[in-house]
Amino acid sequence: MSNRYRRYSKRELLGSLHVDYVMSVTDLGLAPKANRWDVLRAFLKVGEARAERLVEETGGFLVLQSVPGRPNTGAIYVYPGSIATSPK
């Protein structure tokens, strides 16, 4: 049987996904209660890549970045806004 019409799973197509903490708002030189647009502006300023897509949500945003002139490069960054913590 030919693999021509084989269906691939998302894991096969995407490979492994890693989630890492990159930086905080204070690492960007902003106050903890900074406006999310100020956070995005500061983040894009320190990054060496360009924002290809911006997905806005109520509590934050998701940025897809790539390195100009280098195909198949990039990363996904999530800014969750305020992270709710449960009381101890």
Strand content: 15-25%
Shape: elongated
Task: Please outline the major beta sheet.
Answer: 3 strands, antiparallel
Query: What is the helix content?
Result: 10-25%
SSE string, helices as H and strands as E: HHEEE
Mean pLDDT: 78
Distance separating the two termini: 58 Å
Radius of gyration, in angstroms, nearest whole number: 17 Å
Describe the structure using short key phrases.
88 residues; 3-stranded antiparallel β-sheet; 2 helices; disordered C terminus
Reconstruct the topology from this structure:
Elements: H1 10-14, H2 36-46, E1 50-56, E2 61-66, E3 75-79
Antiparallel strand pairs: 1-2, 2-3
Structure in words:
With about 90 residues, this protein is an alpha+beta fold. The chain has one domain. It contains two helices and three strands, in the order ααβββ. Strand 2 and strand 3 form a beta hairpin. The C terminus is likely disordered.
Please summarize what this structure is.
By secondary structure, this protein is an alpha+beta fold.
